[in-house]
Specification:
By secondary structure, this protein is an alpha/beta fold. The chain contains seven helices and five strands. Helix 5 links the parallel strand 2 and strand 3. The two termini are 14 Å apart.
Amino acid sequence: MSGNQRSKVVMNMNPSSVVSETTTKSDVESNPNIRAPKDYMFARSDFTKSKEKLDEVLNTGVLFRYHAPDAKDIPVAQLEEAYCKQFGFKYALAVNSASSGLLLSLLAAGVKEGDSVLMPAFTFVAVPSSIVLSGATPVLVEIDESYAMDPDHLEEQIEKYKPKFMMLSYMRGAIPDMDRILAIVKKNDITLIEDTAHAMGVKWKGT
């Protein structure tokens, strides 16, 4: 998004598995490397490498930022640096959970008591709970056959509730029509907060 528009993106950095690049029917049919949501929604993940890394961190005995002479050398700082390099961000802040990351993102975006925040109806409990904890009210937007937010219903809910914020999550890596979603967000001057816990590294049209 351009710098002269109010809409912005705040990304949650809780890691999870990446399962798909897109979920449109035509792309699935034309590309055998892309799986439809029904083929991965209930797939099990392999956490072998994650467990190995966890052991490495635990073996250092340094679990907090203030347990090392130089903060940049601790595992969490290395994670933040690696995340910025991987996704092209200037800053990253690791927190104790996705729920905390979502709440902090809402507060940093300016959400306050009494605001309405759009969110997909199919998501993880941390999304609506973080909205409620921020003092705002969740506004549900239906999903379509992609298992992701329905742009048509999004427009209806915007017309009805006139919200200024939206938390967009990608349950199990399912991505909506991002071209339409971003166009709607920009048109209605809505601040977009992304929960990428299920979709870090997922691409839309190759980017």
